[in-house]
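ok trying again, last paste got cut off:
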Amino acid sequence: MDAIELLKRIRLPLLDLYGSDDLLSVVHSSEWRREAAREAGNTAYQQHRVAGASHSFRGKEEVLVEAVAQWLNRLDLH
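nice, full thing came through this time. structure:
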């Protein structure tokens, strides 16, 4: 499935978390993913790049957990 096309339909809160040392396809498509979410009118989409993280986030687990926790805490679930 094409993630860019799917993002054009998603309007739910979505955290797009990737590493600066991620797969080249992931890093290079970050702007396209952000634009697809904008096109969908997804105001709850947030993209976050973790410096020094690879695709597996090995060695950056604490940073990964903290980024997700901060994002969840900012969600307005009421």
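cool. Residues 3-74 form one domain. The chain has one domain: 3-74.
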